Amino acid sequence: xxxxxxxxxxxxxxxxxxxxxxxxxxxxxxxxxxxxxxxxxxxxxxxxxxxxxxxxxxxxxxxxxxxxxxxxxxxxxxxxxxxxxxxxxxxxxxxxxxxxxxxxxxxxxxxxxxxxxxxxxxxxxxxxxxxxxxxxxxxxxxxxxxxxxxxxxxxxxxxxxxxxxxxxxxxxxxxxxxxxxxxxxxxxxxxxxxxxxxxxxxxxxxxxxxxxxxxxxxxxxxxxxxxxxxx
Length: 231
Known about the structure:
It is a single chain. 74% of the residues lie in helices and 0% in strands. By secondary structure, it is mostly helical. It has a single domain (6-222), classed as Up-down Bundle (Rhopdopsin 7-helix transmembrane proteins). α2 (38-66) packs antiparallel against α4 (90-107) and α6 (151-185) packs antiparallel against α7. The longest helix is centred in the last third of the chain and has 35 residues, at 151-185. Mean pLDDT is 78; it is low at 188-200 and 225-231.
């Protein structure tokens, strides 16, 4: 059995808190009727994704610390590899699904409520389908006698965890900014005397939106911290 270090205790504690907080955040969205909105559906989806990710890694660390022998064998490695990627993908892809829905809601804001619900269902369904399909290459671990992570799998998982979600989120944010900017430019001020002040306010709003998007993108990329359990 590996030595239990302060870092191990810290990791397990953080994962327990993440699992509990995601459930606590999810419960009122489910139980309170006034929270049953489209936006809160995506919030609930993020909470479920956070719970899946943190719970998987919590189980993994507990098994590694106390039942190391369970984690050996080709079949176990392949199964763990698949679920590791599936659960870890939950958060970045949930954020991507939310950003896509936000872009569609802004671009097609005049569509009916039914269309909005359909978009939400499609975005969330696409998120879960991608989480199930994308980790399938990890099944290649069945042919790995030493249970080591192959180089191409490491590259593939990094691209799926960080590169692809980051690019999609960046493109969505750029399109949102362009749409908001073009909509702002179409605003006409009735009073001539207030035209300069109106343009100044629009400019500040656009700048605030751009700053917010940059900060969120940096947090999205920089906040992705690979979990490196000692396998």
